[in-house]
Design brief:
single chain; alpha+beta; Phosphatidylinositol 3-kinase Catalytic Subunit, Chain A, Domain 5; five-stranded antiparallel β-sheet; three-stranded antiparallel β-sheet; 11 helices; 8 strands; 39% helix
């Protein structure tokens, strides 16, 4: 990870600057290596929806003229970059391997959104551009947005009699379910998780059948870790909930998470690591953090109950 970030910095020094992603409500950027290959996505803190340097003017209008329709009342504002890194941390703590590695880094580039004075001083040679702190997530090659996948690929899967309900696909998707539920993700639509569809020939069979492998990646985790449960007119449902595979009982691999989730030491160490991440933010609020922990504890308790019932085959 560190080597990739350093490669991005070298590329910027050589004039290969990040490019802004058109989608989304904040400033986020594709970052390149010196071969001009996309290797990561950078999301600066001060270009988030509530950030002072948000480059999306439509969001500025929405925030200032229609504040009642802007943001999520259950989330701490302007903490998306921390949430991204925290989701990656939880992924590693549970060994889910569903979130691309994400860490907090500092980068500067003339392609980022700066005010006019900062840019003028930079181009006049008076000062360098201020570094922006934000989340850096590794880019997933060969994956498609879920909405594109279901438009282009799902019909082909059905035609090939290769349903997504095989063991490997089910375990992989259930990892996404576990992650989203535990961190109470409020933004898991079809446009912010990825699917990679692979057909692997089974050489040991006479009929040369194909083993289908569907890999999932959880990106855009910046709207998670609420300090209270959603209690307004928006319920923020999960985008994967409509899939038939999501109704299948948890696999044995997923149920193997129970020893971790029921371990008091695991929770202590996990919250310790999360707190270190959240304290990176200069606006860290102790009271809000305690509320965030309380929500996550409750989610964890419910998850343990569901996994236990799944073992007993008593899940309704």
């Amino acid at each position: 990870f560190t080597a990739i970030v350093e490669e991005v910095k070298l590329a910027i020094n050589e004039g290969i600057n990040p490019t802004r992603i058109k989608q989304g409500s904040s400033g986020s950027y594709f970052c390149y290596n010196r071969k001009k290959e996309i290797v990561g996505i950078f999301k600066p803190k001060n270009e988030e929806p509530y950030g002072k340097n948000n480059p999306k003017w439509t969001k500025w209008i929405q925030r200032n003229l229609f504040p009642c329709f802007f943001g999520r009342g259950c989330l701490v504002p302007n903490l998306g970059y921390i949430s991204e890194a925290a989701a990656s941390y939880i992924d590693r703590r549970l060994h889910l391997n569903i979130v691309p590695r994400t860490e907090i880094v500092s980068l500067s580039s003339p392609s980022f959104y700066y005010n006019s004075k900062e840019l003028q001083d930079y181009y006049d040679g008076k000062s360098s551009l201020p570094k922006k702190k934000g989340s850096f997530q590794l880019f997933m090659t060969g994956y498609k947005d879920a909405n594109i996948f279901f438009k282009e690929g799902y019909d082909q899967i059905i035609k090939n009699n290769s349903p997504m309900s095989n063991e490997s696909s089910r375990s992989n998707l259930h990892s996404l379910l576990v992650l989203d539920y535990l961190i109470r993700n409020t933004d898991r639509g079809l446009d912010n998780w990825l699917i990679k569809y692979e057909e692997i020939p089974e050489s040991n069979t006479e009929n040369q059948s194909l083993e289908v492998l569907n890999l999932f990646a959880a990106i855009d985790n910046g709207l998670a870790f609420p300090y209270k449960h959603p209690d307004e007119w928006r319920s923020y449902p999960y985008g994967w909930a409509f899939l038939p595979i999501s109704q299948i009982p948890f696999s044995a691999e997923t149920r193997s998470l129970l020893p971790l989730l029921t371990s008091n030491s695991w929770w202590i160490e996990t919250f310790k690591g999360l707190e270190q991440l959240f304290r990176i933010d200069p606006d860290f609020d102790e009271k809000m953090w305690k509320n965030q922990k309380a929500v996550m504890r409750g989610q964890g308790y419910n998850l343990i109950e569901v996994l236990n019932r799944s073992v007993l085959n008593t899940v309704d």
